[in-house]
Amino acid sequence: MKEFFVSIHLIPASHVLEMCECLGFGGEEDDVLLNHCLLLARYYICCCKFKNISPCIGEYVQGLKFNFEIEKQVSMVTGSENKFQ
Predict the structure, then answer these.
(1) What residues does each domain of the chain span?
(2) Alpha-helical runs (H) found in the chain
(3) What is the DSSP letter of 27?
(4) Which SS3 state, helix, strand or coil, does residue 61 take?
(5) What is the sign of the dihedral through the CA atoms of 5, 1, 65 and 41?
(6) What is the pLDDT of residues 24-60, one digit of tens each?
(7) Which among 5, 32, 7, 29 has a CA at the least distance from the CA of 16?
């Protein structure tokens, strides 16, 4: 997953993604976007567990893209496009 976050320039290649950071403990408080992506990853993994299927990075990326579009539409409706960008 780290490689994916590096490829979309969410974290630098030198960033060490610690287990506690992936679970939502520690890390930078102001890194809202990374924390949001990690939260969506944990949600996706949990859903896969309940469906008894193996997680797939491609499906996770599709979920991120879907969530991105929803957040974009919400920012337009609420007038917070600058903050979204």
Answers:
(1) 2-84
(2) 2-7, 19-22, 32-51, 57-78, 81-84
(3) S
(4) helix
(5) negative
(6) 666 666 677 888 888 898 899 999 999 999 999 899 9
(7) 5
